[in-house]
Amino acid sequence: MQDYSIGTPGKPWGAEEKAQWYDQQSVKRSVKEEVFDKLTHIIPDGFRLQQYGALPYDEERYPLYAVVPNSFDESKPSALVTGGVHGYETSGVQGALKFIQTQLAAYTVDFNIVVVPCVSPWGYETINRWNPLAIDPNRSFHADSPAPESQQLMHFIASLGMELSLHIDLHETTDTDNSEFRPALAARDGTTHDNWNIPDGFYTVANTPNPQLAFQQAVIDAVRNVTHIAPADGNGKIIGADVMSEGVICYDKKSLFLCGGMTDAKYVTTTEVYPDSDNATPENCNDAQVAAVCAALDFIK
User: Fold this and answer.
1) pLDDT, tens digit, 9 for 90 and up, residues 129-140
2) Beta bridge partners of 113
3) Contact 292/170 with Cβ under 8 angstroms?
4) pLDDT tens readout for residues 159-206
5) What start and end residues bound the annotated signal peptide (predicted)?
6) What domain count does the chain have?
7) What is the pLDDT of residue 1?
8) Is 15 contained in some domain?
9) Contact by Cβ (8 Å): 65, 152
10) Rounded CA gap, 95 and 118, in Å?
11) Which residues contact 278 (CB under 8 A, 6 or more apart)?
12) N or C: which end of the chain has fewer CB within 10 A?
């Protein structure tokens, strides 16, 4: 893997290198225009937009929003949809918004649903995996988390006091994982990360202790009507992990402090679309995320 432009190979970053990295970041799109302004116009009846926090980097610019039911019915199962934990993964955010706009109302009869469409608004604007502290929010869902994105989301979900049956976390795998983010990670940590084959297509990441493969396969089967499913590589793996069934790999979400491990929901999955495919479009990727959320809800209905 190529050397990164910041730091000394084999030596973890200190405060100086992290500041140097931060100084290279810039706003590339508007989270206000592309996310927050949209949210004010798409909330269906029976739901409200709730601000559950704000990022300390700029609290006015980076509020944290969730779409929540006006009231919770304890007789119904509860589901959580999260997007934009990695802000650069566009369809995770835009797919969540499209689900709110087009499908959320249809599921209110059977579920209490909370949607958090953009967990990392600074990351969305700067097209970043990390936050300004060079911390990956999706490795930071634990007590005393140093990532305010993760910490505030955990506190918010805990404050709702609901028992979750389902958590679906919307992500992408992109070519920049190899060209930028894995080299940056290796430089930050003073380690070596080999390039991995970027899978061409959609896949899901199940939870190792409780994979619920029939549930994962239901999501895969629904999404295949929208976009293609990622094949295993020559070693029978996807991003270095064994393929458990078509388009499904497993991570131990709690031990890795992933967003998908922050609850004790029985049904948990992380979606991964591939926007850089020759056979994909932004709208196609958004539709794949919506199809995945709907299939997940339909499976446990």
Assistant:
1) 999 999 999 999
2) 79
3) yes
4) 999 999 999 999 999 999 999 999 999 999 999 887 788 999 999 999
5) none
6) 1
7) 46
8) no
9) no
10) 10
11) none
12) C
Report the predicted TM-score, pTM, of the whole model to 2 decimal places: 0.97
* Strand, coil or helix: 252: coil
Does 33 map to a domain? yes
Q: For 70, which DSSP code?
A: S
Which one-letter amino acid corresponds to residue 195?
N
Q: From CA 2, how far away is CA 39, in angstroms rounded?
A: 40
Task: Please tell me the predicted confidence (pLDDT) of residue 2.
Answer: 57
Residue 46 resides in a domain: yes
- On whether residue 197 sits in a domain, the answer given is yes
299: three-class secondary structure by DSSP:
helix
Give the separation between CA 225 and CA 19, rounded to whole angstroms. Answer: 45
Taken in order 145, 148, 150, 155, the sign of the CA dihedral is: positive
Q: What is the mean pLDDT of the chain?
A: 96
pLDDT digits (tens, 9 = 90+) for 13-38: 999 999 999 999 999 999 999 999 99
Cβ-Cβ contacts under 8 Å for 195 (sequence gap 6 or more):
1, 178, 182
Estimate the crossing angle of helix 182-189 against helix 15-23, to 10 degrees: 150
CATH number, domain containing residue 155:
3.40.630.10
Pairing of strands 112-116, 164-172: unpaired
Element (H, E) at 160: helix 148-160
Contact between 162 and 72 under an 8 Å Cβ cutoff? The reply is yes
Over residues 225-275, the pLDDT tens digits come to: 999 999 999 999 999 999 999 999 999 999 999 999 999 999 999 999 999
Which structural domain, as residue segments, surrounds residue 286?
28-175+192-300
Structural tokens at position 92: 């995770």
